Amino acid sequence: MDFFSRLIVDLAYFLNTSDGYQQKKRFFYDILENNRYQPKKYFDLFMMSLIFLSVAILIAEVKNDVHDFIKFFNIYIISIIFFIEYLLRFWISSSASEIVISCSEHDTMLGRRFNLSRAVLKILKAKSKFILSIRAIIDLLAILPFFHELRLLRLFVLFRVFKLFRYTTSFQVFASVLSTKKFEFLILLMFTSIVVFVSSVLVYIMEANNPDSPINTLFDALYWSIVTISTVGYGDVTAITVEGRTVAIFVIIAGISVLAFTTSIVVSAFTEKLDEIREIKTVDDIRKLKHFYLICGYEGVAQEVAAKLKKQKVKIIVLDESEHRIASAKKDGIVALNYDPGNIESYRKIGVDLNTQVKAVLCLRESDVENVYTTLTVRSISKKVNMISLLMDESNRKKLEFAGVNEILYPKGLVGMISKELIGRPVAFEVIHALRNDYYGVSVEEILVDSRIHENIIYLNELNSISFKIVLLGIYKKDKKRFFFNPLENTLLESGDYLLVIGNSAFIKEFEKYLHKKIRT
């Protein structure tokens, strides 16, 4: 590898590993292309304002004198802003450094010299793909008014209107829906073009030699044909001969057919894509939620839990790969998506932050295997989100625990917990949710009353737990094999009992040390 090629490769690695460079590129990508990036909507509004302002100035110039500064602003300032945007889009459209690195590593693996020219060709091919795209061409045409010396180019201000497709999601959805019917529209265009061509030639032949006919040129015939087939019928140019009017009859019938065909194509396209459009809207609404509970699966237990949550006006989202179960969830008035909860792609489509937006993931499939898969998938994305899972078979408990479930419950136990302890008491729900997350620093611990503690502490009121900010939930009596919740202060402690306490993890450790160090006075 010669010096220049090595220099190019080193520069590519430098750019690819530079945090500052990558952060800047990522920022401009988010602001220009990433619809999930919140500040992007403000940028889009700004660019849309510039577009409408430039068109308004163009209209005002037709019959009014516009101030020189306004002309300067419209021709230079706005054009420069659009030009900068074009350059930034050109920059983020592909990564030249990644292409160079890929080619270099490929050549090294094959044991041959790095071919710089092939890498350059790949870069040019990638950039050309952007330059020749419809959106990029519209962006370029929107910049042409900058060359105001050619007055005709100022009319390209109108092309800025087409840039609205970049900044409005509705336009993008509309265009994507129509793009699914490319073949049908191509057939329609071919049919219309043939009808226009044949009718234009026929009516020209029939009318051109008649001095009273307004159709004297082939362009007049073409204009008449287009106006007639579109069923507009201005009446400024009409056929006056019998032959010409006969042609007009067929053209009118063809025009009705074209309109009917066009309408059917558009209607069928939106009918086919209606569910997808609704899904896009649902996903956008979900991304705006600050806190919600994610239910994976919608079977018997899940339906009961969802009903309890919905009754208490708790925000929930259901994921299930079965169309039938999703239809059932929607019928019950629940926001549901036909996504497989065991597939990582499902969560990427939703695009929510599991750590901050999702309070808990409820794995409620009536299959331990499915719940394990769902847990592993969620845990590959987030280590912190709280996860509660059904357990159908006790032999699978270890598998769920290993997968990363925080709370494992049998079906009846889960419904009872949701309906009685959590949903009926929203504050208790938040407390229990907080206790399940380690980053809150609060935990529930068991402390064994051994012989040393028993020698120094006889009654419960001698524990002095309040000074350590520890709450005693209860005591398990070994001899009676029972747990006493909130026991009396004069309860006698015996060796082998267990104290169940709640509090800050650090305070609990200090409290346990205190119990072992305490000497009875």
Question: Can you characterise this structure?
Answer:
With 521 residues, the protein is of the alpha/beta class. It is built from 22 helices and ten strands. It has helices at residues 3-17, 19-32, 40-63, 68-92, 96-109, 116-131, 134-143, 159-162, 164-167, 169-179, 182-207, 218-229, 242-287, 300-311, 323-331, 344-350, 368-381, 397-403, 411-422, 426-435, 451-456, 505-517; strands spanning 292-296, 316-319, 336-337, 358-363, 386-390, 407-409, 442-448, 471-477, 482-485, 498-504. Helix 17 links the parallel strand 4 and strand 5 (386-390). Helix 11 (182-207) crosses helix 12. The chain is elongated and about 125 Å long.
Whole-number mean pLDDT: 81
**Radius of gyration, CA atoms, in whole angstroms:** 36 Å
Task: Specify the overall morphology.
Answer: elongated
| Share of β-strand residues | 5-15%
Counted by DSSP, the helix tally is 22
SSE class:
alpha/beta
Low-confidence stretches: 148-153, 419-424
How many runs of DSSP E, i.e. beta strands? 10
Largest sheet: 6 strands, parallel
Distance between the termini: 85 Å
Helix content range of the residues, please? 55-70%
Strand order of the largest sheet: 3-2-1-4-5-6
